Amino acid sequence: TVTAPDPATVRITVRQPTPNLLTNLGGFKGMAIVQRANVESGQIATHPVGTGPFSFAGRRSGDSITLKSNPGYWGGAPPISGVTFRFISEPTTALSALQAGEIDWTDSVPPQRVAQLRDDDSLTLAVTPGNDYWYLALNEARPPWDDPTVRQAIAYGIDRDAIAAATSYRTAAVNQLAIPQGSPWFTDYHRYRYSTEEARGLLDQAGAAPHDLDMLVTSEYPETVTAAQIIADNLASLGITVNIRTVDFATWLDEQNTGHFDMLMMGWLGNIDPDDFYYAQHHTNGTSNAQKFSDPQVDRWLDAGRTETDLARRKDLYAKAATRIADEASYIYLYNPSVIQAWANNLTGYQVRRDGAVRFRNADLDGGENP
């Protein structure tokens, strides 16, 4: 239940320990505390009122949004007087504007320019493996993909390095689990080296010889199309013909939800808490378990992780669950794309977040200049 004992307090009462409550409230995909009148009047779309370190100052439709420092913010007013977000559709244009001193910060950096920008002393570049991840899922409602040994064979038969290189210009971090290195929830796991020989041996062990594989990808995310072409080449070595089906995203969702696929590729974005990475996707009753994975032990670990408040025990629960999920190849994980941002050297106090959220709360510009 949620109550408001006074105008400046929100009290949330939960039925059970809920260690991920704060990330569900304040995370990138979380909730906001807003005025009821602002919502009911419809003005939240044109003049939003919130509780953050900045408040809405104005907008130019299709061009920019301007925020100003909020002196009433509970943590104190931020160092800078305001922020103007400009909409620049082309990454190369945004980068040129940064290099010319027209803007102070951008998260629109062409991945193919990263190698060159590493040597550019005129700006600060951050390439940080993010909490987003890309994966393959095999439809376990269809044979032979219902056999974990066959799914493991496919996991060995995929060249993650080639996929990450082709889709991200080598800026992504190859990973065999969902959570990137550097996160406090990271688990070291590297079972599936790329090995056609290992993959073929597992198929023989399972007595399986699949010849065709229907792979669902979407033009909405071009990296899925690029990866599919590499995967088709990889699996051809196992005698498997990959039929790539490229559809719009609405159709992709329909096909996923009806189980009309052998394999699909997609990503999960904006995750923070380990529950975000695993429960909906791999619990038997998960809302996004399109691959129809079901493992009673994984269910127990994931259920326990939702209420365990001891940090060490909670980390152990998710490490066990993540390892078994990968061992059973519920998802075949590929890589974590990096959060790539660049800013002027006189911008200080700014930190890149792995979930991609942008926070200028502690940022400052040397000399006290306005952004």
Radius of gyration: 23 Å
Q: Tally of extended strands?
A: 16
Query: Spans of 5+ residues with little confidence (pLDDT < 50)?
Result: none
Principal-axis shape: globular
How is the quaternary structure best described? single chain
Helix content: 25-40%
Major pleated sheet: 6 strands, mixed
* Largest sheet: spatial strand order: 9-13-8-12-10-11
Classification by helices and strands: alpha+beta
Give the ordered list of helices and strands: EEHHEEEHEHEEHHEHEHEHEHHHEEEE
Determine the N-to-C terminus distance: 41 Å
- Give the mean pLDDT: 94
Question: What does this protein look like?
Answer:
With 371 residues, this protein is of the alpha+beta class. It has helices at 21-26, 36-40, 91-99, 114-117, 148-156, 160-168, 196-206, 222-236, 249-257, 274-282, 296-305, 311-327; strands spanning 2-6, 9-12, 54-60, 64-69, 82-86, 105-106, 123-129, 133-138, 173-174, 212-218, 241-247, 263-268, 332-336, 338-344, 347-348, 364-365. A 6-stranded mixed beta sheet has the order 9-13-8-12-10-11. A hairpin with a 3-residue loop joins strand 3 (54-60) and strand 4 (64-69). Helix 5 packs antiparallel against helix 7 (196-206), helix 6 runs antiparallel to helix 8 and helix 10 packs across helix 12. The model has no long low-confidence stretch (mean pLDDT 94).
